[in-house]
Amino acid sequence: MNNLPIGVFDSGVGGLTVAKEIMNELPNENIIYFGDTARVPYGDKSRETVTSYSRQIVEFLMGKEVKCIVVACNTASAYALETVRHEVDIPMIGVVKPGARTAASATRNGRIGVIGTEATVRSHLYNDYLKKLSPNVSVFGKACPLLCPLVEEGWIDDPVTEEILRRYLKELIEKDIDTLVLGCTHYPILKNAVAKVTGENIRLVNPALETARELKKLLEEKDLLSSGTAPVKHCFYVSDGADKFRDFANSILPCEIIETKDVNIKKF
After folding, report:
1. For labeling, which of 18, 69, 163, 165 is most exposed (least CB within 10 Å)?
2. d(CA 179, CA 100)
């Protein structure tokens, strides 16, 4: 079982930031990635809808015989993870708790900002978990619905993106936060642009990196690390727009993606 692949899924391209960190932290592991590009974004959808989508994707990944699943989507982690994880017999982790733990240990003044989709912010999952870790912290959430489409369009270093970030982040900066959680897997792609707006006094927390580190610990504890004896092979699937996805993936990932396949996810 050790040499079976790791399943990773997201609503679109954002989860590639998690896949990238997994590749860096666990270079001997194979990844099967699914991006639900036909139904992106998840952030404006209901809990029931996101849970239904997540079940379909998990069924698809289980059919590929993965040894664990990473929910590389903050919205799905907030809405679906706790339900779906009990329906499978392999380990499953999300991106919220690893990022929250890092933020709790990083803050100096106890004032933490969280940016994410409307669903992630509305769920209060980061707020609730941070309060469990450190009851005295103050958590300020800010929904930033325009950022995902900008990332999906590749407008990473565009002046329009910077201006929108300034508008979104102004409120959090005025709250005197010293730590900011990039609470959507799309957002690490905008990390440089965010840092330009927030300045050097606010630490940015990348849950994608923290999730990859937690995954490594999990595989070690479960004795599921790959033996590293076989060549590494990553497979990528999407629900729409395979060519566009592949081009975007090749601009982010440390390896070249030769092929991305379309899947009719609704049949699962």
Report:
1. 163
2. 11
Specify whether 235 is catalytic.
Answer: no
Fold category of 6-94+209-267 in CATH: Rossmann fold (3.40.50)
* Of the candidates 118, 93, 49, 109, the residue with the CA atom closest to the CA atom of residue 207: 93
144 labelled catalytic: no
pLDDT in 10s for each residue of the chain, 268 residues: 789 999 999 998 999 999 999 999 999 999 999 999 999 889 889 999 999 999 999 999 999 999 999 999 999 998 999 999 999 999 999 999 999 999 999 999 999 999 998 888 988 989 999 999 999 999 999 999 999 889 888 899 899 999 999 999 999 999 999 999 999 999 999 999 999 999 999 999 999 999 999 999 999 999 999 988 888 999 999 999 999 999 999 999 999 888 899 999 999 9
Buried b / exposed e over 220-248, threshold 16 CB at 10 Å, is: eeeebbbeeeeeeebebbbbbbbeebbeb
Is the separation of the CB atoms in 37 and 10 below 8 Å?
Answer: no
**Active-site residue identified among 73, 148, 235, 255:** 73
> What architecture is domain 96-207?
3-Layer(aba) Sandwich (3.40)
214's tokens: 């937690």
- Active-site residue, from 68, 144, 148, 184: 184
Give dist(CA 83, CA 80) in Å, integer.
5
